[in-house]
Amino acid sequence: MQKEGLAVHKKLFIPGPVEVRPDVLAKMATPMIGHRSRDASALQHSISDKLQQLFYTDSAILLSTSSGSGLMEGAVRSCTLKRAAVFSIGAFGKRWFEMALANGVPADLFEVEWGKPTEPEMVDTVLASGKYDLVTITHNETSTGVMNPVEAIAPVMAKYPEVVYCLDAVSSMGGTKIEVDKLGVDICITSTQKALGLPPGLAICSFSPKAAARAKEVPHRGYYLDLLALYEYILTKDYQYPSTPSLSHMFALDYQLDRIMAEGFENRFARHLEMAECVRAWAARNFALFADPQYLSNTLTAVSNNRGIDVGELNKKLGARGYQISNGYGKMKDKTFRIAHMADCTLEEVQDLLAAIDEVLA
Ligand SMILES: *Cc1c(COP(=O)(O)O)cnc(C)c1O
């Protein structure tokens, strides 16, 4: 039987992988260079300079040929000496806790009800115990559509300089402003297949001197995902990597960062907000928003399925029209559905998608 889904490309409105522009995709096919060549160093320098601007940081930029989860696991393992405080507001927050346990890293999980944010007061209360030397926070929880109030959490983190601050910005970096240094974030992590608009396969993080100093004290950091090893290699081997990186992704990333800079960061963030506002208004008119309205994500919207529609059926019919959205994540399947509005997607494309949904539901 012929699989119809493979024949027709569906435009992706799922929170990763996202639609990748053809010119960006084409850069993945750049002929190879040696990963120990001067050209490889130059490529990495170029990527790093641009990413420092996008992350608003002076910290080193590390790339890992893994998805975002790789650097999340590497961060919690490489930089926890005493105990990690994992703040979770959904599935991806909890993943960090599972990673800590799987690596034998002592950790405690602090959860809130799905749809709610991590409140600064909660972080303060937990850190005041003095038990923790690493914190993980999810910037943008893709399972619930909540964007955490990191600006309000920053002054709390500043009270605890001994704590390494890890931020999961996998589904938001490049789609909304995250001023890493101003927020006091030591390790800010993202992956290529979300708001950056590239194929999956590369993870990116900033790595502060404080994070490096901590990692030096941690005896068993693993091997492939030892963030200190990546950092020291970058510093001493002219921006190269201990093992062979995905050069194809690096070519595409370097090019895509030029595109992002040509659009202008502020313009890009404003475009994301505009798309978010459009989807939120549509969701409020037709269904309801799942997340606390004060903490809505700028890169994806989780819609409460308060009409009890068949989400699978909706997606099938959208598929025939050349679109794909996401069902709810994990336990929220069929109770919510999610529309991503990130990367290089335009307001017009979002409006076309919403019109297609209206047509299917009519
Ligand atoms: C997608 C996602 C991850 C996992 O990233 P991978 O690149 O798939 O490993 C982690 N956190 C959040 C918030 C995400 O959206």
Describe this structure in words.
The strands form four sheets. The protein has a seven-stranded mixed sheet with strand order 2-10-9-8-5-3-4, sandwiched between helices. Strands 11-12-15-14 form a four-stranded antiparallel sheet, with helices on one face. It has a two-stranded parallel ribbon with strand order 1-13. The mean pLDDT is 97. Helix content is 43%, strand content 16%. It is built from 14 helices and 15 strands. The chain has helices spanning 4-7, 22-27, 38-55, 68-79, 91-102, 120-127, 150-158, 180-183, 209-217, 227-236, 247-263, 265-286, 311-320, 347-361, and strands at residues 11-12, 60-64, 84-88, 107-111, 134-138, 140-141, 146-147, 164-168, 187-191, 203-207, 288-289, 300-304, 323-324, 326-327, 336-340. It is globular and about 60 Å long. The protein is an alpha/beta fold and 362 residues long. Helix 6 runs parallel beside helix 7 (150-158) and helix 12 runs parallel beside helix 14. The chain folds into two domains: 2-19 and 264-361, Aspartate Aminotransferase, domain 1 (Alpha-Beta Complex), CATH 3.90.1150; 31-261, Aspartate Aminotransferase, domain 2 (3-Layer(aba) Sandwich). The site of pyridoxal-5'-phosphate (PLP) has 14 residues, from helix 4 and strand 6.
